[in-house]
């Protein structure tokens, strides 16, 4: 009789864990590369996109992304740091 209770408890526990895992959404942010480090190129391009959304036409998103590729993600723009995004800002007439 006790093995029936233990088996049913085990099945209920497994079903609960499976339900909880399937319900929760999992996101990887910031991006990770295969070796477990940060994918700095991906972070750089995502930051360019974020700055483009923030500054609109005043921000050269394509130029920013091209510099990410050129420097292989070593220069990551920070939308709140004017020195890191200054090369990509433009004046509209």
Write the layout of secondary structure elements.
Layout: H1 2-23, H2 40-55, H3 61-70, H4 82-85
Secondary-structure element string? HHHH
| Topology, number of strands | 0
Hey, roughly how much beta strand do the residues contain?
under 5%
Query: Helicity, in percent?
Result: 55-70%
CA distance, first residue to last residue = 84 Å
* Low-confidence spans: none
Helix tally? Answer: 4
- The radius of gyration computed from the alpha-carbon positions, rounded to a whole number of angstroms, is 23 Å
Could you tell me the mean pLDDT? 79
Shape: elongated
Structural class comes to mainly alpha
How would a textbook summarize the main sheet?
none
Brief write-up:
Residues 1-28 form the signal peptide. With 93 residues, this protein is mainly α.
3D architecture notes:
The protein has helices spanning 2-23, 40-55, 61-70, 82-85. Helix 2 (40-55) packs antiparallel against helix 3. 56% of the residues lie in helices and 0% in strands. With 93 residues, the protein is an all-alpha fold.
Q: What are the defining features of this structure?
A:
93 residues, mainly alpha, 4 helices
């Amino acid at each position: 009789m006790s093995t029936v209770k233990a088996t049913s408890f085990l099945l209920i526990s497994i079903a609960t864990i499976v339900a909880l895992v399937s319900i929760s959404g999992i996101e990887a942010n910031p991006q990770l590369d295969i070796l477990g480090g940060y994918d700095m190129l991906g972070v750089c391009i995502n930051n360019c996109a974020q700055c483009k959304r923030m500054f609109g036409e005043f921000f050269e998103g394509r130029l920013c992304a091209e510099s990410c590729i050129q420097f292989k993600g070593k220069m990551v723009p920070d939308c709140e740091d004017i020195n890191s995004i200054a090369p990509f800002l433009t004046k509209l007439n």
